[in-house]
């Protein structure tokens, strides 16, 4: 059975349409799975008192991407490589960020020619991670316990007169000693000095009387 030219042309037309549809389907599928910047996002958060910035890649094509983080002054913070997944793959940068700071996140892939920043970057929260610890009031020192009382010393017995040392000699008195007292005895004078003085006085009187009598007799004889 021979094939007519009309049937051959119709078959060729159908084959061309089918090939075009297949190519279009494959192209759409490839575009849908291609890596693009919209599949990357970034957030700033805290891990304890440590600030971190996390970049998530939900590219299901599994295309490796280089993530570079810059602070708002344009200084490089760090670079990490991530391979995306449908569930999302993350990379974390440790950064002690300040509140309300803005960071730029750049994404670059060797496949699909992605080489741009994440739209809007990332802005840190208004509260820093490390908060000041409350100042602990100084504890009041415990009251010092009273010092143990010292037992009173046993009173020492007063030495008796017999046990005491020889008393010191009394200081010499400045008052004059009475006549015939101990001072005369110390100079060797006799205790009968008063008697001798009385006898001498009597003899003087007697002698005076004798002289007077002799003078009177002589005057009478003349």
How would you describe the overall organization of this protein?
- With 222 residues, the chain is an alpha+beta fold.
- Strands 3, 4, 6, 7 and 8 form a 5-stranded antiparallel β-sheet that branches.
- It is rod-shaped, with a radius of gyration of 70 Å.
- It starts with a helix and ends with a helix.
- Helices cover 29% and strands 22% of the residues.
- It has 3 helices and 8 strands.
- Among the domains are: 33 residues; 87 residues, Immunoglobulin-like (Sandwich).
- About 12% of the residues have low confidence.
Strand portion, in percent? 15-25%
Mean residue pLDDT: 74
Apparent shape: rod-shaped
Using the CA coordinates, give the radius of gyration: 70 Å
Helix content: 25-40%
Q: What is the highest CATH level, the class of the domain at 37-123?
A: Mainly Beta
Listing every helix as H and every strand as E from the N terminus to the C terminus, the arrangement reads: HEEEEEEEEHH
Instruction: Find the CATH topology of the domain at 37-123.
Output: Immunoglobulin-like
Alpha-beta classification: alpha+beta
Helical element count? 3
For CATH, the homologous superfamily of the domain at 37-123 is named as Immunoglobulins
Work out the number of β strands.
8
Q: Which regions are unreliable across 5 or more consecutive residues at pLDDT < 50?
A: 20-32, 175-188
